Amino acid sequence: MIAFCLAFVLARPAGAHAADYDPLRVDKSQVVKTIDLRLHDTKRNRDVPILFYLPNGDKPAPVVFFSHGLGGARTGNEFLGVHLAKRGYVAVFLQHPGSDDSVWRGAPLRDRLASMKKAASAQNLSLRIADVSFVIDELANLNGDLGKGIAGRMDLKRIGMSGHSFGAVTSEAVSGESFPGVGQSLTDSRIKAAIMYSPSTPKSADPAKAFGNVKLPWLLMTGTKDQSPINDTDVANRLSVFPALPVGDKFELVLENAEHSAFTDRALPGDREPRNPNHHRAILGISTAFWDAYLKQDKAAAKWLKGDGPKSILEPKDRWQKK
């Protein structure tokens, strides 16, 4: 699937904007190096596996985190990690024990849905939020550790956060969401921008109160059929996030006929729509332009993102808006 998506990206023209800026352009010959590590948080006695996708060269590069969905793993969404690395980012894919693939692996098929629903808990969200801050702390140590092969590779003043589904909820929590009744902000000030694939609003909270004070640049991506049986999240819930955000560097992409799995590597049980290769093309292009604009401060990327650039890689019924 990854090779097909990249071939599709490179085979199709990016439109009139390609002469100035093309977020889909990559070097096909570039080999992306990966490093798989397991970090131990002594305070919580918790291991956090992470997978790095590294760009070519030896200069410090911006860092983009990715948090997997419920039942996922750090090895998922490889198409994103590979593209980010080829565009000059260090991609750091986290794995969250307790809400990763250990939830369903080995369980009888009849019990898997119930196990997944049980794992979609406030406790696991709290663990995930702490995982993010812990790994950011550890990156400073890894940046100076010659033995790990990534010394000096990360620009930790330019960090982006992203995630899919439960990973999107995690990303919302650490990048600006408000939690009434919680005594302190959960936002990590080291994060400069965030992308949520399949975002959602807490069902017990007013979207305006949850998202009305988000200060960071946010990009939301969902689909017209982006539903999840795990916590009964429907399309209306996902679409309620963007209207609640304040004006200023906020964006939303809604892909026509995209199901929940459109933002992952492969189809999920229960999918009804055939996979549309242009969905990955749109996801890669628009997310790259967003990171280029807000982590690299690339003016051409910002102009592309805020202008007609996204339309050049979207299909007629896809919806793109900004405020």
Furnish the topology, listing elements before pairings.
Elements: H1 2-11, E1 33-41, E2 46-54, E3 61-67, H2 78-86, E4 90-94, H3 109-119, H4 122-142, E5 154-164, H5 166-174, E6 191-197, H6 207-211, E7 218-225, H7 235-239, H8 241-244, E8 250-259, H9 277-294, H10 299-306, E9 319-322
Parallel strand pairs: 3-4, 3-5, 5-6, 6-7, 7-8
Antiparallel strand pairs: 1-2, 2-4, 8-9
Helix pairs in contact: 1-9, 4-5, 9-10
What's this model, at a glance?
The protein has helices at residues 2-11, 78-86, 109-119, 122-142, 166-174, 207-211, 235-239, 241-244, 277-294, 299-306, and strands at 33-41, 46-54, 61-67, 90-94, 154-164, 191-197, 218-225, 250-259, 319-322.
Tags for this model:
nine-stranded mixed β-sheet, 323 residues, single chain, Rossmann fold, 10 helices, globular
SS element count, helices = 10
Structural class: alpha/beta
Q: What fold name goes in the CATH topology slot? A: Rossmann fold
Residues in helices, as a percent range: 25-40%
The CATH class is identified as Alpha Beta
Oligomer: single chain
**Count of folded domains:** 1
**Gyration radius over CA:** 18 Å
Would you identify the regions where 5 or more consecutive residues have pLDDT less than 50?
A: 1-18
What is the CATH H-level superfamily? Alpha/Beta hydrolase fold, catalytic domain
Overall outline: globular
Integer average pLDDT: 91
